[in-house]
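Justification of computing resources. Each target in the renewal requires a structure prediction run like the one illustrated here; the chain below, 309 residues long, is used simply to show the kind of job we budget for.
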Amino acid sequence: MLSKVANRVYWLARYMERAEDIAKLVNVYTNLMLDMPKGTDIVWYNLITIMGAEEAYHELYQDRSENSVMSFLISDGKNPCSLFGSLCFARENARTTRDILPTEAWEVVNELYLLVKKEKDNLDTRSKRYNFLTNIIKGCQRLEGMLVSGLSRNHTYNFLQIGRLLERADTTTRILDAGSMILSAGQKMKGTEGIVWMNLLKTMNAYQMYRQSVRRRVASSDVIDFLLKDTQFPRAVEYCVDSVGYLASKLPNNEPVQVKAKGVKVLLNSFSAKNNSMKDMHDLMDQVQLALYDVDAAVNDTWFNAAIS
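Resulting C-alpha cells:
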C-alpha cells in the first residue's frame, strides 16, 4: 500500500469522525444550555475553548455570540476545522481513494458534503440546526457501519480505524475537559453536576453503557474514570488507545507507534478521579492530548513519511 494512499484513508477517517463529533457536541450543548438552572454561568464560547480554537476564532470573529460560535464551528469555510471544512477534506480524500473503498462510501461522503454546502447558510433557528446536525450524525454513522461491515480487514481498514480512534480519543478528552470547565470555580451550582455529566455522556452515546457499568447515579469521578479508563466502551480513551496498539501490530515497523500508545496508557493509569481535583483533571487532559499528538506524529513518521526520511 502506497504511503500517500494510507495517509489519505487515515485522514478520511479522522475528518469524518471530527464532523460527527462536532455535530453531536453542538446538539448536546444546546440541550445543556436549556437544561441548566437560570443564573448558571455557561456560555456558547465554551465550545471554542473545548475545541482549543481560541486563536483561530478571534482571527475571524470579534464577538462571542451564539451565531458567531455556530458559524465558526459548522459552516465557516475559512475555518479548516469546522464541520464544513472537515467534510471538504474528507470528500477529497474519499475521491482520491475510491478504488480501495466500497463504492457506497464515496457516495455517502459526497452526499454529506453536498448537504452541508446546500444548508450551511440556512441554519437561522435552533430547530433547523438540530435537524441538520442530526442528519449529519446519521450520515457519518451510516458510513462507519458501511466500512465496518463491507471492508476487508486489510491495511486500508487498519489505517481507517487508527485515524478514527485517535480522533475519537482526542474528542473524549475535550468533552471531559468541558465538564470540568463548566463545573469549576464560579460555575458550579447545586444540582448541576448530574445535568452536566448526563448531557456530556449523551454526546458520546455513553449514557446507557455508563449506567450498566457503574450502576450508580451520575457523578463526576465515576464519569471521568469511565470515559478515561473503561476497556470495553469504544469511546473511552483507554479502549481507543488499546485498539490503536492492536491495529498497529498488524502493520510493519509498528514499534514507535506502540511505544507512544503505551505512553498514553501510563498517563491514564497515573490518575484517579476520586483522588484528584477538577484542575488536576484539566492538567491531565492537556497531557493526554499532547500524548495523542505524539501517537499521530509516530504514525506519520513511521508509515507516511518513512520513504522521504
